[in-house]
Each structure stands twice: as C-alpha cells, then as structure tokens.
C-alpha cells in the first residue's frame, strides 16, 4: 500500500490565493480595512504565502483598486511571504514600491488561452514578462511565474507536455525563484499530475514549484495528493473555495484552503496552519462578499465536530430497552 | 511513487444508490414510470449493481411507496445486480416476492446512531437482521449488510475499530455475501480508510466488501482511491450526487457516480460504465426532482469537453499580431 495516505509530519506549504484570485471575481468591493483584516487573520493562521492583491489597472479589476494601500498596511508576520499578481512593468513598479515580497507573473502555455485572456501571443507575453523579471532582479525582489493551462486548455483541450516544459525551461533560465503549475479550469487528473510534477521537480531542482488546482470536476484533493507523491510540497488554495470557473457557471473553482488543510492534517501532514483560525476566517467571508461560500468545511465542520443527539433520544432509548425485557 | 494513480485497467464495480438513497430524501414523488426509466437507463449504462428502491413502510418513506411496481417492472439486464433496502421481515418478504436479486440490510456500528435512526439498540437490530438473513437464505437470495458510521458517528465521534470488526465478524458468521462499510456522514479520511479496508479484506476473504463514502468534507474521491489501494474493488455512489447530509444542511452527501466514474476512467481504471450514458441520465434528474443536482460533471462536463473561443477571438489575435510587427 502507498505511503501517501500517511503524511508522517511531512511539511506542506499552503499559499492563500483567495484574497486575490477569489476577491477579484466578486462583483462587490470589499472595503479596504476588511481586506487588511482578512490578510492579517490569514497571516496569523500560519499560511506560508498569501497572494495579497493584484497590481493591475484599477479600471480592469476595480475590486482590487486598493492594491497599494492593502499591501502597505497589512501586518508583516515574519516567515509569511506576501506576494501579488503583476501583469506588466507598470504593475511591477507599483508592487515593488509597495514592498511586495514576491512578484507573481502569469502567462498561459496555451496559445489560444493566452490570446483570449491576455490579448497577447505567448511569445509577446514571454517577452513582456522577461522585462519584468529583469526589473525585479534589479530590485532584488523574487519572482514566481504562474503558468496557466498546464493540465489542459478549456478551448484547445490537452496541451502538449513538451510545450509546458519548454516554458518552464525558459523561465528557469531567466532565474525565476518559483513556478506555479496551474490547473486553470480543473482539467488535471492524478496520473498526469504525478507525471508532470515529478518531471518538473527533477529537471529544475533550483526552482520552487507550486501546484495550483481547481476542484471543477471533483479531483482537486486527489490531485494534491498525487502531486505530493511526486515530490511537490507547496500548494495554492483559496479560503472558502472563493473563485469560480468562468467556463462552468456554478462549478467549483480553486480548491478550498480549509478543505485541503483539514484533509492533510487528518492524514498526518504538517501544514503549519491553525485550522480553527482558518475556518474562523472563512466563516466571516459571507458577511464580506454578500453570499455563501462553497467550502464544505464551513458547512459541515471538521470531522469530529459532533452533533447533539435528538431531543427525544432518551425516550427513544427507554422505549427500545423496554422492548428488550 | 505510488501505483494507485494509474489503474492499468483494474476493474472497479460501481453500485448506484441514487435511486434509493437519493430519491428517498426528495420531498417530491418521482412518478413510477420515470423511476423505471431511470433504472433502465442506469442498467444500460453498465453499472454493476443498482439499489433500486427500499421495501420500507409506505407511510415512513412515501417517496418509495411504489417499491413493488418498480422492482417488478424494471428491465433485468444480464450481469446487473438489482438490490433493495430491507429494514425487517415484512420488507424482506415483499422484496423477495418482487424478485429482488439481493437484500441490503442496514444497522449502525454506533449505538447512539442506531438508537436515534432505527429506534433499536444495536443488539436488537442484530437480532432482527439475523432473522431476515435466515429468511433470505431459505429463499436463496443473497444478503448484503450495510454498516453505518464505520468511519465515525456524527454524535459519538470516532467509533472503535474493534466494534466495527466485531459486527463484521458476526455477520460473516451468519453467511452474508457482502458487507458495505459506510461513511454515513463524511467523516472518513484516507489513512483510516486504508487501515479498516485492508483489515476487513484480509480477515473475511469470502465476503464481498463495498465502500460507501460521502463527500461531506471533500475527501470522497481520495477515500475511494485509498480504499482501492487497500484492495477494495466495489463502491457505492449516487447519480448527480443525490442525497444530502441531515447533519450539515447544504453539504454534499454521497459521492457522485459520474464524478467517481469520470475520475477513475481518467486514471485508467475500468468501471465498465459508459460515462456519456451516465451523464445523460444525471442531466435528466433536475426535471425529475425539481432542482439542480450537486454533480460537478453535470455543471462542468468532462475534462476534454472544450469550449468555443470568444466571439471576438480573431480580432483580438489580429490586433496582437499587428503589435508584433
């Protein structure tokens, strides 16, 4: 039997993306002070990294138009990496000015998805991100590159693994500290995850790989486990399961932070996260965003959160025992 | 790396419980002819076993008050086992009269849960089921016993594994053909599943074990994989993910048949199920029950069900390419 089911204290680093990937999809604007309080709560819950915000154009993503204030005013808890999405040079300058610990750049390994989402060819994106990486290096700020559609493109279907690895190679050559392999629309499945992850870790040992899964087809947690089995130790997840899938209305988006932490802790992995504090933060989300969150742990509690017996339990038992005599 | 991620054609038998476990929780009465058509569609989709209905009191579960007619009038596809829930002697007589292939009996390994749900002590349930088993043996009808709360009780918390195995032993001694280990409220987690499943299969090799998981806390598919790793080859699942959890309103209930089949087929397991036919059947459920179903596959489709490019894609690409020159 596989040893994957027993973590034996293996450390898994959890990266929270709900504050960026989740909130940017919300139609309402979460007040700046609430965003700051949320990031502070997540910092104290023990997450390894928090994607705080996105330094995109305020007109493109008004929900995150307060990026500078949030990044400047959050508490900086030692050991936590405060990252932010940066689409271009202007965003990088803003993020560096706001003392962002790490710049998270994004492009897609699918040509169709890159053109549809970023309005550039992949080569144009690569050239633009190369400039951002050079700027970050000058400023001494680490860079992570999130590669979208690594496990499939919602328009093209499967993306050749050679294409994925070619971009990983090119970014590794540019000296990025981390690469996130993103399952953008929930197309990843365990043997594919195990194969791609183990190859990436073997080929670029100096790069910190993060795996980013969506639970769109119910395989999120199993993909996390397959990636751990292949050597991955760092995962993106979203508080409350915030962030849907634009291609499948009503379907799940990002894997849910408290579901992944709950499951990994049940299995004996050490996420370093205080699950109670994380669940408390997730339970405050509906007030912030005005609707329920997908999180199953918010709905059902932890596995040993027991329920009271029915009010008439003693009477039921008495009647049962009376029949026995 | 574990071999669990690659099925290599290993045969997994899928047992559909939506027609009983799912429909019995629906407030509406699904017309008898629609139930029959649904079971027939599931038969032709290649499921190994279908829990067609429940021979309970029509006043207790009016949604299944047409148990006899449904069981008598469904098409009997060779190779498919048509089972039904039977709570007592009266139910067993009705089920046998209606030519049910297998009687599925239920009791809980948690004393509190058994009293609260079945209004009997576990010993009273065991004595009653022993009589049913004797009747079934006389009639030459196989028996499966579903043990509730094997992986935890929503009121007691963890149930001692020695209690689980003591009941397995007693039913094995009574000569039952199968035992289903049920995670009644989604408390199971992979290392526990692997441990209990491997012990059960080793101790009672003549008993066909089925694993029954709920996805209440998002661990359903991972528990299926842990059980397969421990030697299990037969699983309950519910079409559309029908059947909620009375202890967690809004949370998932049974693992969803088409999600499990989709995932297992992606991983190279052979479920014998025609996924397209299964998804077609699931997509007809909302019309039958009057509300959407939890199934992520119904919402998002299979992983390679691609989407069209945006309507303005060609213009976006032209503009991008024009910038390049």
From TrEMBL, chains A, B:
Keywords: Lyase, Metal-binding
InterPro entries: Aldolase_TIM, HMGL, PYR_CT
GO molecular function per UniProt: hydroxymethylglutaryl-CoA lyase activity; metal ion binding
All residue ranges annotated as the Pyruvate carboxyltransferase domain in the record: 12-279
Pfam families the UniProt entry points to: HMGL-like (PF00682)
Single Gene Ontology BP annotation: ketone body biosynthetic process
Keyword NADP: no
Domain of life, per lineage: Bacteria
Similarity field: Belongs to the HMG-CoA lyase family.
Name recorded for this polypeptide: Hydroxymethylglutaryl-CoA lyase
Lineage, highest ranks first: Bacteria, Pseudomonadati, Pseudomonadota, Betaproteobacteria, Burkholderiales
């Amino acid at each position: 039997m596989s040893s994957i089911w027993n973590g034996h204290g293996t450390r898994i680093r959890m990266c929270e993306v709900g504050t960026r990937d989740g909130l940017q999809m919300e139609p309402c604007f979460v007040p700046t002070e609430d965003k700051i309080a949320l990031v502070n709560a997540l910092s104290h819950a023990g997450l390894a990294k928090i994607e705080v915000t996105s330094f995109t154009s305020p007109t493109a993503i008004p929900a995150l138009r307060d990026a500078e204030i949030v990044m400047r005013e959050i508490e900086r808890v030692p050991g936590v990496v405060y990252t932010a999405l940066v689409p271009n040079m202007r965003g990088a300058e803003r993020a560096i000015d706001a003392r962002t610990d790490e710049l998270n750049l994004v492009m897609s390994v699918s040509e169709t998805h890159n053109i549809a989402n970023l309005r550039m060819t992949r080569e144009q994106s690569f050239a633009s991100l190369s400039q951002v990486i050079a700027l970050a290096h000058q400023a001494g700020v680490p860079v992570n590159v999130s590669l979208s559609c690594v496990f499939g493109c919602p328009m093209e279907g499967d993306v050749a693994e050679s294409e994925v690895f070619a971009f990983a190679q090119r970014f590794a050559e540019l000296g990025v500290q981390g690469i996130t392999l993103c399952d953008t629309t929930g197309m990843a499945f365990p043997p594919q995850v195990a194969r791609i992850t183990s190859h990436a870790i073997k080929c670029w040992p100096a790069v910190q790989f993060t795996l980013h899964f969506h639970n769109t087809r119910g395989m999120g947690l199993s993909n996390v486990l397959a990636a751990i089995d292949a050597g991955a130790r760092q995962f993106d997840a979203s508080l409350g399961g915030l962030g849907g899938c634009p291609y499948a209305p009503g379907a799940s988006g990002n894997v849910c932070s408290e579901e992944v932490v709950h499951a990994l802790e049940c299995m004996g992995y050490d996420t370093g996260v205080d699950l109670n504090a994380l669940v408390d933060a997730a339970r405050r989300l509906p007030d912030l965003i005005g609707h329920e969150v997908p999180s199953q742990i918010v709905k059902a509690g932890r596995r040993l959160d027991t329920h009271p017996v029915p009010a008439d339990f003693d009477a039921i038992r008495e009647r049962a025992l009376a029949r026995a005599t």
